[in-house]
TrEMBL record:
This is GDP-L-fucose synthase. Its EC number is 1.1.1.271. Keywords: Isomerase, NADP, Oxidoreductase. GO terms for biological process: 'de novo' GDP-L-fucose biosynthetic process. HAMAP family: GDP_fucose_synth. Catalyzes the two-step NADP-dependent conversion of GDP-4-dehydro-6-deoxy-D-mannose to GDP-fucose, involving an epimerase and a reductase reaction. Residues 8-244 form the NAD-dependent epimerase/dehydratase domain. GO terms for molecular function: GDP-L-fucose synthase activity; isomerase activity. It comes from Rotaria socialis. SUPFAM superfamilies: NAD(P)-binding Rossmann-fold domains. It comes from the Eukaryota. PANTHER family: GDP-L-FUCOSE SYNTHASE. It is an enzyme of class 1 (oxidoreductase).
Length: 321
């Protein structure tokens, strides 16, 4: 018996996570048998903040499934200065995507939350049940509240219309096609870019903050494999954290050391402690994921950082920076 063909629209398909899903799907050896077709969409094809454009996009591709990744995203420093934009843009994008998906009869939508939207004052490890338990960190309240509303929308669509709209919660993602902009990007791609420049210009590598905060990083290719599993197998409305284990949490200092090794940087390393550290930690539990996939193998952090450094050096001219 052949399964019904899936037409999967990936919003934000040209970003870090979207391009990893493309890479992993295209390298699957049994993809012919899967009866799946993917469409990777960028903002140049459709501005999802605009309702009309969103309707035109969905009518064109007639998706049965949506992986909704598109978002206004950025690191700590960009969030701090633009909380209102992060809230409004993401609220518009998410409402348009989910309501148009419902309007044209999409069966399953998988949207992306993030561990940085969880309550600031909390117990650790955080898990999927704790999203709404208190205010998020002040530095990114706009992004956080907009993301939390996706979970509210998913529950509403399920309760009122019986459709299967769910969400995934990745920890810090990194890999090829990341945003390597030093001011606007996330910590790891920012470190890679700074290290690349320090090596090239023979200057010290300056790490922002104390280096003490802890983070769980997931390699985009590992996350992409998990996203495909969610499309095919995960059947709950409730969010699921997609992360390495608590034991794999690293400090920013350790992350910088992995970058230094990956880039083969021999120069001086300095810490600029006048810069904000952000949340000290946001340790997440991957117990739920492990209950479904006990044997999933994550790429080792050092190896994944090395792959990403190599990709950045080889693609310096075209990389987002
Ligand atoms: P990127 O910044 O790499 O990509 C963002 C994508 O969204 C791009 O394809 C961009 O298109 C698209 N996009 C942005 N604004 C619009 C818009 N108005 N209309 C249509 N498309 C738009 O993001 P990531 O791949 O890093 O993130 C993917 C998802 O994962 C996001 O929802 C993010 O919140 C979540 N996430 C990310 C984490 C991380 O560490 N990166 C951690 C946890 C969650 P274009 O490039 O063409 O402008």
């Amino acid at each position: 018996m052949t399964s019904e063909r899936k037409r999967i629209l990936v919003t934000g398909g040209t970003g870090l996570v979207g391009s990893a899903i493309k890479h992993i799907f295209e390298s699957e050896s049994n993809k012919e048998k899967l009866n799946e077709e993917y469409f990777f969409i960028s903002s140049s094809e459709c501005d999802l903040r605009n309702r009309e454009q969103t309707e035109t996009l969905f009518k064109k591709y007639q998706p049965t499934h949506v992986i909704h990744l598109a978002a206004l995203v950025g690191g700590l420093f960009r969030n701090l200065s633009r909380n209102l934009d992060f809230f409004r843009d993401n609220m518009q994008i998410n409402d348009n995507v989910l309501s148009v998906a419902y309007q044209i009869g999409v069966k399953k939508v998988i949207s992306c939350l993030s561990t940085c939207i969880f309550p600031d004052k909390t117990t650790y490890p955080i898990d999927e049940t704790m999203i709404h338990n208190g205010a998020p960190h002040d530095s990114n309240f706009g992004y956080s509240y907009a993301k939390r509303m996706i979970d509210v929308l998913n529950k509403g669509y399920s309760a009122q219309h019986g459709v299967h709209y769910t969400s995934i919660i990745p920890t810090n993602v990194f890999g090829p096609h990341d945003n390597f902009n030093i001011e606007d990007g996330h910590v790891l791609p920012g470190l890679i870019h700074k290290c690349y420049l320090a090596k090239k210009n023979n200057t010290p590598l300056v790490i922002w903050g104390s280096g003490k905060p802890l983070r769980q990083f997931i390699y985009s290719y590992d996350l992409a494999k998990l996203c495909l599993w969610v499309v095919r197998e995960y059947d709950s409305i409730e969010p699921i954290i997609l992360s390495v284990g608590e034991e794999d949490e690293v400090s920013i200092k350790e992350a910088a050391e992995a970058v230094v090794k990956g880039m083969n940087f021999q120069g001086e390393i300095k810490y600029d402690t006048t810069r904000d550290d952000g949340q000290f930690k946001k340790t997440a539990s991957n117990k739920k994921l492990r209950s479904y996939l006990p044997d999933f193998k994550f790429t080792s952090f050092d190896q994944a950082v090395k792959f990403t450094c190599d990709w950045f050096e080889a693609n310096y001219d075209k990389a987002r920076k």
